[in-house]
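Thanks for the sequence, V.! I ran Ig-like domain-containing protein right away. Repeating your input here for the record:
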Amino acid sequence: LGWLMRGLLVLVKSPCAGPAGNGQVESQAVVGRVGESVILGCDLLNAEEARSHLYVIEWVRFGFLLPIFIKFGLYSPRVDPEFVGRVRIQEGASLRIDLLRAEDQGWYECRVLFLDRHSNDDEFQNGTWTHLTVNSAPTFLGTPPALVEVPEKEPLSLTCSAIGNPQPVIVWKRNDRAIESGDKVQVSNGTLRITSVERASAGIYTCHASSKEGSVIHTTRLLVQGSPVIVVPPQNITVNITQDAFLACQAEAYPGNLTYSWFQGSSNVYHLSHLQSRVRVLVDGSLLLQKTTPDDAGKYTCVPSNGLWKPPSASAFITVLYPAQVTTMPPETLLPKGMQGMIQCPTKANPPLLSISWTKDGHPLKLDKFPGWSMAPDGSIVIATGNDDALGLYTCTPYNSYGTAGASAPTRVLLKDPPMFTTRPKEEYFQEVGRELVIPCAAQGDPPPMVTWTKVGGLGILQYLSLPFFKEMSVDGDWPPREEPCYLGPSSDPLLAKDQSNWALSLPGQPLSLLRGSLTSQSSGRGSVSFLRPPSLALSLGGTYLSSPLGETEGWQSEGESRGSMAEEGMPRKELAVATVSKRRNTSVDENYEWDSEFALESDILDALQLYLDALEASGSPQALASPEVRCMALREEFLAYRRRREVAKQRRQRMSSHSYDERFEQATLL
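Predicted structure:
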């Protein structure tokens, strides 16, 4: 036992000698493959020494506390548990290892102790170190699942790891092509990362681990959860009436629990009474429409859905060709007596309508026998003047390139008196801003008429006050009147009587009926006035409400009282017909000016107004209102004439005495 204990103590010290490279012995290398066998050679025991059996053979593995194999004489060897059944002595002291494992790779040392001779520790440690290399094909340590489901637009990471000797290289492939890193995909250390999964990302991904010893492959199938994608959309079709119509629609999606819905316009085809009994949605999503009718024509939309997100849609049109036909002919058609009327033939046709033939009282209708009768482009009969000739029973028959579906049901034409007004609106209404204005209008007739309202264009001066000329025109000055003033008395017109407290003007020979206008300051709110304005008169009254720039005498009258003053000593006193302006703001009129709170109505205006009255008496009837364009030109001419007269007045003033005059310009601006 002493020799055995001495051997064990030496073994505890010796494992570091070979791998540490102490220079006493040379190492050797042995290469094997996993699953195969190798022999670790040892030449310390020759054949003659082996016959005595007085020796101990030990194989030491670097990193192990005890020898992995100990053999003494004819006794059974002691073997490390990891090598049990796989090691034995062969050819002297050499060690045979069967069924190599990757973990068998490492350093091994052979030692022989002879029991029949004296030996020291150094002699016992003279064995040879051998390095065993075990090559192995790649083996996966970790792989992703064989089936991966990811919602659309979510990130994805697939990791694949493997071992082997030499160390295998891992490559990810799709469709047998290596995946390279890019903006949306990164591959690093066996991990495949997709930043945002798209529908196109779905497919088969393979992880390849390879070395010179071989390769292994792992396959992962990626399924992307998302709304369907239509791969076969419907196409426009044209069918003849009573033929079947077929629209294809196929979609792909995961999950694949697809349901197909079809719509005509915005209504589900199964919810339309005229389609319910003739329509079918097939398993593959196609639409079958049997025995088409004209009402089946239109837009059809396929909507596949699997319950995820917003479903897609695709549309196509069904065109149905059919002969021209009458839709609904009314049993009675009413025409107004003495007025233009129309007998209509309501039709539909595809291809388009070509012609319509009519019968009256069972005989073909010949329009040339009825003066004033004609046929409209849509085939309706237009009667210029409704009379007894129009009475009768009519039918119409439409035609297109496919023919006709037949004549219409008869319609009886009756004459009726046209509607008449029972209450007519007045020609003019005045109302303050912000208050309610009611304009009555009523009519009667058989059948009861429908009353509608329309606003026709602009009114009066509003049309031409918007022109650039009047937007810029301002008048600062006055005309020097030379005529004798006259008095304008109260008006008998009820419209004028309303504002009678604001007037103290009259004309020689009271005007019987003059049109009434209004002047309103909307921007400054300085006042308002009602005035007399002849509509066909060339001169505009609004442009002549100006006071004298020369400080001439002004006479003011109100409620029968008058006052006057001399503007300058030595100047003749002139009394002018004037008006006192109401201080109440009135913004209910359509013709608007701006003026100072007091102004003179001068003789030029009165002369022009008197000419207008004389013209009325001569003609015996009022003239038609001039158009806004004509009045615009007249106002412009009046303004230019006024400026010429003002220049003459300034020149006359310069010729007067050297006394200083107070020049007063009151500005009237046409808005």
